[in-house]
Amino acid sequence: MKAQNCVFLSALTMACPFVRDVVDEEALVLRRAFRRERVFRDRLDPLAFPDDHLYERYRFSADGIRYLCRLLGPRIKHRTARSHALSVEQMVCVALRFFVSGAFLYSVGDAEQLNKATICRTIRSVCLAIKALADVFISFPGHRRLCDIKEEFYRIAGFPNVIGAVDCTHIRIKAPSGAHEADFVNRKSFHSINVQMVCNADCVISNVVAKWPGSVHDSRIFRASEIYQCLSQGEFSGVLLGDRGYGCQPFLLTPFTDPQEAQQAYNHAHARTRVEMTFGLLKARFHCLHKLRVSPVRACDITVACAVLHNVACLRKERAPRVPPAMDWDNPAIFPDDDSGRLLRDQYVLNYFS
């Protein structure tokens, strides 16, 4: 019987010379002899370190990481423990280390004692799970009462009726492939995505729009956003503050270009209340946002995930990193000021800054 099977296999091989699987028993023996054994490295418990150690590597304390694990666990937990599957704590710490360091994947893998493929899959899984929580942690005008939000802004420099500060920041990315590569080249001549954010007085992000290439102007992003439609229809009582790149609107106040005496006081309060350090704080917390070596779509996902994590850190009072001085892009406006917006701005100067 065995001889007949060998004859049949030999005939099958001759009839199908391009069959991939080797059927020769001697070859199978050699293959088993030289098969590389899978090696599972020892993995340390990432939470078995003091908070200072965890903060430097993950920007969260042990309690903060456990909180994230409870939030993300139902979405990212492996169904089985086959092949030494990562625990929820290990997956969260892998993603946090990448967000915080912005290093190459193999560098993150070396630090976490994992291979590059595992790192890539883990970061993607955790990133999407965090992004799914955006509607929970990023809410306009904020998680507090509207009157409390206005009061917090007013305490900064005496600017009344403010419910948010809007601005855009560029997230550098690698040059994307395809016909639309030039769309991602911004005015500074590097590839980026242009991300709009609205923040409150505590640097908590209340709105984020991450989907536009770097060549798109700030004011065009704002006019196409959902928050613009809500404000223009009067759904919120209050105003946003924006820089000179935006046209002055009844719901968006901008500084004067050539201010007089009373207008200078308005401009000074306006500049202090805009809270531009939010971008610096976000990028100091998550260094990956200085440059992402991923496609534009994945760069947008990572940016939203970092915004969610930033809000979690702010709401939980996690330690804030040192913020470097912000860079002024001096973005010129492309849309003119609205007459009703200029009239409201003049009333602010007359009533509050004269």
Automatic annotation (TrEMBL):
UniProt KW keywords: Cytoplasm, Hydrolase, Metal-binding, Nuclease, Nucleus
Keyword hit for Cell membrane: no
Any one GO MF annotation of this record: nuclease activity
Boundaries of every DDE Tnp4 domain copy: 166-311
Domain of life where this protein originates: Eukaryota
Main subcellular location: cytoplasm
InterPro entries in alphabetical order: HARBI1-like (IPR045249), HARBI1_animal (IPR026103), HARBI1_dom (IPR027806)
GO cellular component, as recorded: cytoplasm; nucleus
Pfam families reported for this sequence: DDE_Tnp_4
Essential cofactor(s): a divalent metal cation
Keyword Coiled coil belongs to the record: no
Subcellular location: Cytoplasm; Nucleus
Function: Transposase-derived protein that may have nuclease activity. Does not have transposase activity.
UniProt similarity note: Belongs to the HARBI1 family.
Name the record gives this protein: Putative nuclease HARBI1
Lineage: Eukaryota, Metazoa, Chordata, Craniata, Vertebrata
